[in-house]
Design brief:
The structure is a single chain. This protein has 307 residues and is of the alpha/beta class. The protein has ten helices and 14 strands. α1 links the parallel β2 and β3.
């Protein structure tokens, strides 16, 4: 996949099939759009082009900025779009000046002027541009004026509900990772650097890797204990993770830690990915470290059964 950090850097390609969006999650709904793009591109011997924005428009515009969290980091989003088989990714730098551009001007001057689409495909009820004025109807009008086709992919259903990034975020915030994963089409994950902790888990017989997240906008799932998979250096391991404040040991800052099963490597400073499979229980305070250890034994057994 070719990546362009400015739409003006885009070089002409044959019969571009284009979509536009922020694509937080790159969930099943987004994947349906990408699949349709690839099918259409194959028919007309064209190439697929995804246009997205960075930073996320809501960050620049200050909309709900205090509680603003996203399912994927920018790096993960790019990786998932590439894995979906897209040919070209155009990352438009989103600024307050750009936000003032009307949807029609954006389409005419940038999308049509620079990319010259043969076809534009968008997801169900998708809006874009200034004040979200850009719509399927506007695209149809522009397509008629400038000679490109327009298609809208129907809403994608999973688990009896319409797939959307908003619903997925709410599920993750509630700890419902199974349902979130069903809508994502893959397992929600966190990637971070392993940092030194207090080594209390090691004393209990359950050493943990403590994770530091660099992206302040990364959505962290609800507090609790999870069955998970851990990826390090191209290898996959089973494990159990705790998100929370470790009330039995301390009431400090939020921590993300994982006990990797059958693993004895020293990985401080290394980057690992925790992929969450199912939330097993709430985080709670135990009367003693012995009681906590007994519960961890039960948690590991439950995690192995789930995994």
């Amino acid at each position: 996949m070719k990546i362009y950090n400015c739409i003006k850097d885009f070089k002409p390609v044959p019969n571009p099939v284009v979509t536009i969006g922020t694509f937080d999650g790159v969930h099943l709904g987004h994947q349906a759009v990408f699949d349709q793009m690839k099918r259409e591109a194959k028919k007309i011997k064209g190439e697929t082009v995804v246009i997205t924005f960075f930073p996320h428009p809501r960050i620049v515009l200050g909309l709900n900025s205090k509680n603003l969290k996203f399912i994927n980091t920018q790096e993960k989003k790019i990786n998932r779009i590439e894995a979906a088989g897209i040919d070209h990714l155009v990352i438009v730098s989103f600024t307050k000046q750009f936000a003032g551009l009307s949807s029609e001007d954006f389409l005419r001057d940038l999308v049509i002027g620079k990319i010259k689409p043969a076809k534009v495909i968008i997801g169900y009820d998708h809006h874009f541009g200034k004040n979200r004025e850009g719509s399927f109807e506007l695209l149809l009008k522009m397509g008629n004026d400038f000679g490109f086709e327009v298609d809208e992919v129907e809403a994608r259903l999973a688990g009896g509900t319409t797939v959307s990034s908003t619903k997925i975020r709410k599920l993750l915030e509630a700890g419902e990772v199974c349902q979130a994963n069903e809508l994502l089409g893959y397992e929600y994950s966190i990637t971070g650097k392993v940092v030194k902790g207090k080594s209390i888990g090691r004393k209990l017989g359950f050493p943990t890797a403590n994770i530091e997240i660099a992206d302040e906008y990364k959505l962290i799932a609800a507090d609790g204990v999870y069955a998970c998979r851990v990826y390090w250096m191209g290898n996959a391991y089973k494990g159990m993770s705790n998100i929370g404040f470790r009330p039995t040991i301390d009431h400090g800052e939020l921590t993300i830690e994982v006990n990797i099963f059958d693993f004895n490597q020293t990985i401080y400073g290394e980057e690992i990915t925790i992929s969450f499979v199912e939330r097993m229980r709430d985080e709670k305070k135990f009367e003693s470290l012995e009681a906590l250890t007994a519960q961890l034994v039960k948690d590991k057994k439950a995690a192995l059964e789930l995994l």
